[in-house]
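wait is this the right file?? whatever heres the structure
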């Protein structure tokens, strides 16, 4: 039996939409479309791959990948010694995100 779960990156998608709206607002107020389009493109290209995370357990290993499998990794189940529920603050891991 294989376990598979895909977690959507809701926060990054909402942030991307807000940045896109800011780009449109800049375009609307200044009349210059080049910086706005550049901002929207850079944001879309950087946010798209991180818009979902899929985790799978099966075949004797734990596998995870971001959207479209661009960034993937795997770990043999034999290497996992312990697992448990951990509560962390929202800012935990912020350094790795930056």
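ok assuming it is, sequence goes like this
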């Amino acid at each position: 039996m294989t376990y598979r779960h895909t977690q959507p990156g809701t926060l990054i998608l909402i942030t991307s939409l807000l940045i896109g709206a800011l780009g449109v607002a800049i375009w609307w107020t200044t009349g210059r479309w080049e910086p706005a389009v550049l901002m929207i493109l850079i944001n879309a290209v950087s946010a798209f791959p991180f818009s979902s995370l899929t985790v799978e357990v099966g075949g004797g290993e734990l596998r995870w990948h971001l959207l479209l499998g661009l960034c993937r990794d795997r770990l043999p189940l034999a290497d996992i010694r312990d697992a448990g529920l951990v509560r962390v603050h929202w800012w935990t891991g912020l350094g790795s995100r930056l």
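Helices lie at 10-30, 34-47, 94-97. so i think its the right one actually
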